[in-house]
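Weekly puzzle thread! Below is a chain. First person to post its structure in token form gets bragging rights.
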Amino acid sequence: MLEYENQMFLDLLHEDGLLIAAKGLGLESLLVSLITTYNDPGNLVLVVGTSPKEEEYLLQHLQENEVSPIPKKLTSDYSVGERSNIYMDGGVLFVTSRILVMDLLIERIPVDLVTGIIVWRAHRVIESCQDAFILRLFRQKNKTGFIKALSSSPMSFTVGFCKVERVMRNLFVKKLYLWPRFHADINTCLSARKPEVIELHLTMTNSMKQIQMAVLDLITNTVQELRRSNNTIDIDEFCPENAISRAFEKMVKLQLEPIWHQLSIRTKQLIADLKVLRTILEYLCQYDCVTFYNLVSSLQTTEKAMQSGGWMLLASAETLFVNAKLRIFGENKASPTKKQGPQSSNKEPFTECKLEENPKWLALSEILAEVRQEAVESKDTEKCLIVTQDDRTAQQLKEFLMFGAQPVLQRLFYSTVAVKFGIPTPSTLPGKTTNQKGTVLKERKDKKGKAKGKTNEEEENATLTQIAKKYDFIGKNETEEDTEEVEFMEHLFLSPLILVQPLKNASDPLSLNKILKEMQPKYIIMYDLDLSFVRLVESWQARQAEEQVKVYFLVYKGTVEEQVYLTNIKREKDAFEYLIKEKANMIVPEYLDGKQDDHPDLIRDAKKPSETVPQNQITRKGGQVEEPQKEQRVIVDMREFRSELPALLHKRGIDIDPVTIEVGDYILTPDICVERKSLSDLIGSLNSGRLYNQAQSMTRFYKKPILLIEFDQNKPFHLQGRFFLSSDGSSSSKDVAAKLQLLTLHFPKLRLLWCPSPYATAEVFQLLKTDKEQPTVEQAQAITAESNPDADIEKFNPQIKDFITKLPGINTKNMYTVLNRVTNLVELMTLTQEDLTDILGNSKNALALHSALHHTMKQPINQDAVRGRGKFTKKGVKRFRK
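Winning reply:
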């Protein structure tokens, strides 16, 4: 461990707390140290908040450090009995939040024996999440165990009112540890062993400069128009500097999503325009001229112009479109028209076109040439890591290194732009033949003889072989399969080994950590700047003190790319300065750690005399002794623990029984069954017909079935806008509304419950359970889709019952009388009107039913034939002329 990492570890080990560090400073090593310290069968430590890939990385790191026993991962693959045995064995366990909540509620885990809980990604712990539920259950029954929380997202604690204080309250910790990059210990440690950094300030081409200026003008105009048209909204952070940052979308979502349905169409168009313009700037700095032109040309349509807020009509937009085309066709060649299609007399006028090359590609070639020269001089096999922003850029760089710039650009041109304008494709394109491998591979093949004579140790050979087989190096021959190990090794030890890796990998967030550790590159080329990776390289270099790594920065000087990077640094610095001030002014109650009985969050219901007032102090009111309220209980289906509602119900003093039930999601009383649906789930269930079957089962087995439609608390409580039904009365909106109406008409007993948030749902559930009988788990589990209910009200065939309820004259009062006194439909058809009057008890209903069964229905009158025959009087009564 580094010096500052050791100090982090000692601080957190000495006293529980929340530790917030800057991105890329290696919190994973701190987590490994905590796990190693408590990894003993005499302890029972639970780790929550980690993803499967992170757990895999941590377990691999522990195995390499020869830690024994290796911690286990508890998932749904283990049975109930196996989980109980694993808990009793002790040690460190990675447990998913859903499983741990159920085990704590059922008391399958010995809570009093738990040594402590380590929380990863602590910034996500809000009051209604599963991790907060776990900590509350843990602290209610365990007053001695530790809680240690880690987070590397300081900006998440600056959003909202007293966010850091609320998170600390949910974590039950009293200490706050802050470790920014400008911390004295971190600065001293990383400055002692710094990598050799070479910044290459590149210059954009003239066309790229014109495009950037035009897009920045469009962003400025759009932001000004947005601020001008929304005077009532707090849009102080809506500025051009923030609009070019990737965090702008989160900022807009946080502020405007709750009132999105109240915004004008103009405002929504302007917000969408800012996203489009920011995407254009990203494409300009990252991708080639052909890819950029394809994006811009896709926006230059009538449909896109109608959807935008009007930026395409400005002069800067014309500058954007013209210069994007100049990068493809050049200034001396006119852009192709419809007349210059395949029938044009010109003979392949664009076969020799000179497409504008990306300046970063040229700089990358020069860097690799320098790296190759150094590798030749050192007579050693060096490894070079090229880091890009995404997979698309990484794939383009691989093709560029294999075939060169113009072959790659021409292949893209003839596969996209040429097809659009009808330009004939040449018979052979560069980069398609198998014998063309580019200058990089050619030089390596020429040096094959030198590579054979290179002598390395066996351990080094084996390590390089494993690395080359695991990762896709550019130096590996991709067109011909190497059948022999000798031939593979000949290609392997040709220096340098080049690996192109994207920064963002959704499937494995720690992929770069693994690559740096396994590959041990001597050269790192940052094709795209990223703050987290810069810190990661700094900490990795500090650990690799024996050899200095060489880092190349490729950045367009004085451009949006540089500004975005500097803005990210500033935002993180401002976040830590805000947290430092909050820590200085923070009032920390003595009960905040939850180790005393006076923590307000541990008192589940303040209205319970049994929990707040001792039995010998119960007072008399009105001459009667105030009796303690009975314990309330709700049966919850296990699949519902993905939502926030069970945690909020438990906090209100309602006991939770997590079981698997087939009918409904929540059983409030023996008569009340609730099926919970979010908006997206509601639409999917209506379209698939699943909600009909669920409503049918609930109405069949419960007297009071309820369909709960629960909204997100961060979104508007409104059935219009982009979240559900559109306000333009489209067919899709009408379909969803019609299906909801049809559902309520078909099941009259079904009640709809609309709740704006899970908090409101928990309050309504508590009101519905007031003075009601509590449900039992045995009864709820006994009800299945195939079971026969014992109630006399449900002894009839449900299909026949549904048919009878739709007949005229049949209502809820006489429906069961008909079902009890009439054997079948044939007998019902033979009854006279007098018999039906005797059964229904109403002559009017009997006449309606008899007429529907025996009289021929007349064909509806053609409305076109009688159109215009009537007139309206002043009172609005329509009379027909005779």
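Puzzle host: Confirmed. Bonus trivia for everyone else. The CA atoms of residues 540 and 841 lie 88 Å apart.
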